[in-house]
Amino acid sequence: QVQLVESGGGLVQAGGSLRLSCAASGRSFSTYAMAWFRQAPGKEREFVAAITRGGSSTYYADSAKGRFTISRDNAKNTVYLQMNSLKPEDTAVYYCAADLKRAASQIVTGTLPDYWGQGTQVTVSS
């Protein structure tokens, strides 16, 4: 089992940037496909980005393409989400997620990962 702790959220003006981090502990980090999801008030949780176990492939929701970058450092047991050109509609709680058995590409197509962090709030003001 893996434990996930997100950090890096906060309040930022539109057009600004934030870098979220997710630190993992427990079983070998490199055996997990990793992803970021978000949930805005009154809305369902939605996929943002995913990355394969080795970090060679990444996947993004259309809303994140060109603005967000997911990366991972397996030596540091950490996955990151660099968010640039933030918009008020990016306001949400952002969750880190991990899956031991499924591929990152399966997470993209709707399969929810097995393990989740507690979330970190991102608020973008206009």
Summarize the topology:
Elements: E1 2-7, E2 10-13, E3 18-26, E4 33-39, E5 46-51, E6 58-60, E7 68-73, E8 78-83, E9 92-99, H1 104-108, E10 115-116, E11 120-125
Parallel strand pairs: 2-11
Antiparallel strand pairs: 1-3, 3-8, 4-5, 4-9, 5-6, 7-8, 9-10, 9-11
Describe this structure in words.
4% of the residues lie in helices and 50% in strands. It has one helix at 104-108; strands at 2-7, 10-13, 18-26, 33-39, 46-51, 58-60, 68-73, 78-83, 92-99, 115-116, 120-125. The longest helix is centred in the last third of the chain and has 5 residues, at 104-108. With 126 residues, it is mainly beta. The mean pLDDT is 96. Strands 2, 4, 5, 6, 9, 10 and 11 form a seven-stranded mixed beta sheet that branches.
